[in-house]
Amino acid sequence: MKPTVWLVAGARPNYMKIAPIYWAVREQPSPAFAVELVHTGQHYDAAMSDDFFRDLDLPPPSINLAVGSGSHAAQTAKVMIGFEQVLLERRPEAVVVVGDVNSTAACALVTAKIAFDGAAHRVRPVLVHVEAGLRSRDRDMPEEVNRVVTDALSDVLMTTCRDADANLVAEGIPSERIRFVGNPMIDSLLRCRAAARRGTLLARLGLRGRPLALCTLHRPSNVDVPEVLEELLDALAEIGRDLPVLLPLHPRTRQRIEQFGLAERIAMLGAPARRCPDRGIVGLEPLSYLEMLEALAAARFVLTDSGGIQEETTALGVACVTLRENTERPITVTEGTNVLAGLRKPDILKAVVAARAKVARGARVPELWDGRAGERIVRALAEAVCSS
Ligand code: UD1
User: 218 CA distance to ligand 1 centroid (A)?
Assistant: First the structure.
């Protein structure tokens, strides 16, 4: 029997990282291993989960732990308990975790410590981290803790850029465990770009051929503190004097806007969408993956606190202003279209000008962000499962 590799996803930014690995295996005539999709259920709304599986042409996961929301400890613990049980029952040969969400660290911890009683072939699965080595050096960020823990435990560390390799080596990870494979998120973007161009979001909003800016906000550090969220909305309102600023709302952000009494600052467009106004902040339901790509490609510029969108804008050559004090993806600043703005309104307005100037001068797409990371990951996985 062929070895089995589990691809684990938990939350919205994970799906576009596992999809290229799944596709690369599916498209091989005789793959060295079988793959199974495992969902922890950290994200569970259709708009945060099922819609992405549909857009990415992924089958429903064979296992869903349905852990749902909770405090960091509760969510991590629920994933660990559920994942340990299925791992003991099904005994895959390798577990691939991606990115930096709570599910990533939880499944890494379980895989690193599991022992298969009486297994003739192996004591525990090989643990592989895709998107290893990114560091913001800000331990107040839950994702940074998840990255450090996951990398410390992984047997094979696959990286999206060379600065990640350097970070891992500096932390004492032996270089033979590190594989620079490129960025699988960009595989998903390139593969889905044509379908996104045929999308109807802009037409439904009456935005075809009209200027727009796009903003996403969901980090607790930005949306959970009323003064911070208020200043960010002030900056968006200023930008919105010239063009509509589309703001698809993460459930957390929407809750906070309502809780802090800021809802009247946003023109909410419900579904079915109405024509978008010419100016101001325009709130939308969360976008599907294809809708997000359609909006990103059409935007004059993007403002975001997401990690993935910093990379997607760099790949698309669209100006990006990052609403954070730091980034674990410095290559998007040094080579790409990204400018780190911080959280103050004057700095954000200046950063919009700087990011647009960067695009006008011509930014670069980083090495191996070429749409073939999935194939390289599958080759490295075949080596790892067949040699262990
Ligand atoms: C998580 C990740 C973050 C990632 C983000 C993308 C961690 C620590 N954080 O943050 O790195 O950038 O996903 O979205 O893992 N909720 C729903 N429906 C859902 C999911 C969540 O309503 O399907 C609401 C719940 O109120 C929940 C809150 O959103 O409490 C936060 O969800 P959670 O998974 O804890 O973290 P995110 O903020 O989404």
Answer: 8
Which ligand 1 atom is nearest residue 99's CA? Answer: 11
What spacing in Å lies between the alpha carbon of 223 and ligand 1's midpoint?
12
Ligand 1 pocket test target in 40, 42, 109 with most atoms within 8 Å of CB: 42
User: Active-site residue numbers?
Assistant: 218
Read off the pLDDT of residues 270-326 as tens digits, 9 standing for 90 and up: 765 678 999 999 999 999 999 999 999 999 999 999 999 999 999 999 999 999 999
- What's the Cα-to-Cα distance from 248 to each of 5, 182, 286, 336, rounded to whole Å? 34, 28, 5, 24
Give this prediction's pTM.
Answer: 0.97
For residue 155, the 8-state DSSP code is S
